[in-house]
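Troubleshooting entry. Yesterday's outputs looked truncated, so today I'm pasting the complete records for two proteins to confirm everything comes through intact. If either block looks cut off, that's the bug. Protein one:
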Amino acid sequence: MPQTKRAGFGRSVTRNTGPDKVNFVSLRDGIDLATPAGRLIANVLASVAAYETEVRGERIAAGKATKAAKAARIEAIVKAGGRPPGVNKGGRPKGIPCGS
């Protein structure tokens, strides 16, 4: 059965290819997993996808670390009796007047 989308391509390639299994041919991209060149292209695409996943994870971890460090800095300022950045004397966010 022909498929027009590549959703789940990586999961299905490892299970459905081989000498006794179904072959995958992408007419749009010119990838035929029955040939060595097609398998090479598929492996390169899978490696790029894995790389992107790892880089995304690293960016998320870095963002969480930055957020935790900022929260710790603000907490230290408040414990020392100061105001957190972005808050005026009345305890309201900057830009909102203190008077009622």
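Protein two, checking that the full record survives here as well:
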Amino acid sequence: MKKLVADDVQALHYLVTHAVLDLVGAVVTPLATLIYLFAVQWRLGLVLLLPIIAIFLLVTMNSKKVVGEHANGVWANIFGGAVTLIVIGIGSYQLADLLGLLPG
């Protein structure tokens, strides 16, 4: 019984002290990066924001809780995944071009 109480206290300690900071770091870092990119070079910020939007839409359209019976089927998921990969490729290409990693 004593061990169960100690384990619960440790789990609660992690939740109160560390989980909030981890969540804030996971949200603030990408958000600050996007804001900086929009301030420095808005086209690159927009290109790097597109995969986030595509993934969000893909996840949302697969949620039966959100869209009910209108959730994506297999083919819609295949095409949505392809669009997401293409957008990530375009963002990677733009980033490589900006950093001067592409020849020419």
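Both blocks look complete. Sanity check on protein two: The mean pLDDT is 83.
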